[in-house]
Structure formats: structure tokens, C-alpha cells
Amino acid sequence: MRRAASPTYVGCVSRGAWRRWSIVASGTALLCALPAVIAALPVPASSISAPALRARILASARVPYQGYAESTVNLGLPQLPDLHNVSTLLDGTTDQYVWYLSPAYWRADNVTGTGESDTYADGGVTYLWNYGTNLLTQVTGAQPVRLPRAPDLLPPALAQRLLNTAGRADRISRLPARRIAGMDAAGLRLVPAGTDTTIGAVDIWADPASGLPVEVQISGRGTGHQPGQPVLISTFLELRQTRPDLATVTPHPITFVL
Questions:
Q1: CB-based contacts of 78, cutoff 8 Å, min separation 6
Q2: Can you tell me the distance from the alpha carbon of 101 to that of 246, in angstroms, rounded to the nearest whole number?
Q3: What is the pTM of this model?
Q4: Within 13 A of 50's CA, how many CA atoms are on the CB side?
Q5: Which of 76, 139, 172, 215 has most Cβ atoms within 10 angstroms of its Cβ?
Q6: Is residue 111 packed enough to be buried (19+ CB in 10 Å), middle (13-18) or exposed (0-12)?
Q7: Diameter of the chain measured on Cα atoms
Q8: What is the pLDDT of residues 31-80, one digit of tens each?
Q9: CA 152 – CA 243 distance, rounded (Å)
Q10: How many other CB atoms are found less than 10 A from the CB of residue 148?
Q11: CB of 73 within 8 A of CB of 153?
């Protein structure tokens, strides 16, 4: 004959189980809230000067990294039937995973709700992979003029291009630091001196140690001396400054066949 469990024993087990699950639930809630708590903490100011930060950003082309970036552009352009991909880049949101080993070896995956298109830089040769059409295109030789591609909107590529094309009379100054993708990033503002541009300001936040840009905002001309609202925001949501494997950034055509 089986003996019935003692009511006192059952009560102790229930209270013990409840206590353990309460601890688990509290720990889970704490872990979920941790990113928001960290983001809300004050960001330490960086003492780096504007010219020094600009120099580090320009020298950061060889800094390896891996991450996930989102770019939002609002230029109010019309949809062009033959240039749908370009229209989306310049007036919409672009999500990309990127693995960057060096200027000659990197990979960027543009992910959409309907498919994926990847860009590979493989030692001076560019490969374009379209998942929807199952097509791998090899681009060789120099291209003096080409249409914009999704990787052009990544914060490092965008920041370095804008700073490289800045004029000597353009003004640079520091911006308050911000926490972006878990990093305390130093801010830099570039204000064009010419009156023949619609750009009011270019704001860049970068790792003050490596110079790697983590966010870029381009604002139109506003009223007075203040820039208007950003028309382009490109930022990392996840970022690691680590070297990806060479195999990750190397295209393997045989794997593309369905």
C-alpha cells in the first residue's frame, strides 16, 4: 500500500518550487532590463580633439569588424521603375549584416522581407549575389561611375567618404559622446562652408580608440546656422571589432546553386 504524502511536506515542496521559480523569473527580468539600464547610464566624455578624431576616422579603414547596421534615408525621391533598388536605398530603410576583414576583403548582406542580396570584395574583385534570381555576378576592372550599393550606406564607408571629400574651409567640431551598439562613441560634426550644397551638417560618432565610425547622420540646411532634421541615419545596432574568418568573406559559387 502506498502512503499518502504528508500535507506539510507537499506545502514545503510547493513553497520551495515557488521560491526557485521566483529567483529564475527575477534573474530573467534583470537580464532583459540590463541593456536598457546600460544605455541609460551617463556616457563619459572623450577628451580627443576634433582634428584628432577626424584623423583616426580616416585611418580606420583597416580596422576589422563584424556587425549589423540599419540605414534610413528620407530624400523624398520618386520611385523609378528601372532603378527600384537604388530608389529603395535612397528613400527607405536598409538592413545589413557585415563582415569586414580589410579594404580588399569584406562581405555585406542586404536582408529584406522578400530576399537577400550580398556584396563581396575579394582581393580587388567584386561579386554581387542575388538570392531571388540565384545569380552571381563578377565585377572586374575599375568603375569610375556606378550606381549606389547597399554597402555604401554602412557607417564606416559613409563617414570615410564624406570626410575624404570635405573641403579645407569646412568646419569641424566635437559633439557630445553617445552610447551606440554598446560603445561609448565620440562625436564629430562637419559643417560645409560652401553655399552651393543642401547639406547642413554631417554628424559622425566613432570609437575614440580605433576611429571606427558607428553612426552617421546627414542633415539638410535649416534656419539660421542650425542644421535641419536628419535625412539620413546610418547606425550599428550590433558591433564587434573582431576579425572575421577569411572563408566568411570569400564567395563560394558552388554553394549558391539551389
A1: 87
A2: 7
A3: 0.78
A4: 14
A5: 215
A6: middle
A7: 96
A8: 664 445 555 567 888 899 999 999 999 999 999 999 999 999 987 655 65
A9: 20
A10: 13
A11: yes
Strands, sheet with 183-191, edge to edge from the N-terminal-most edge strand: 135-139, 125-130, 116-122, 105-111, 91-102, 65-74, 227-240, 213-221, 199-206, 183-191, 171-180
Q: Are 216 and 232 in contact (CB under 8 A)?
A: yes
Name the nearest CA neighbour of 213 among 100, 45, 74.
100
Q: Residue 252 to residues 26, 238, 248, 256, 257: CA-CA distances in angstroms?
A: 46, 26, 10, 7, 10
Whether the Cβ atoms of residue 205 and residue 214 lie closer than 8 Å to each other: yes
Cell numbers 542650425 correspond to: 226
Distance, CA of 64 to CA of 29 (rounded, Å): 34
How many whole angstroms separate alpha carbon 239 and alpha carbon 182?
A: 8
* pLDDT tier, 115 (very low <50, low <70, confident <90, very high otherwise): confident
Write the CA distances from 157 to 17, 71, 160, integer angstroms. 54, 12, 5
Per-residue pLDDT reduced to its tens digit, 138-171: 987 777 777 889 999 999 999 999 999 998 899 9
Distance CA 60, CA 212 (A): 5
For 121, 130, 168, the CA distances from 134, given in Å and listed in that order, are 19, 6, 46
Q: Which three cell numbers stand for residue 28?
A: 530573467
Task: Quote the CA–CA distance of 25 and 32 in Å, as a whole number.
Answer: 11
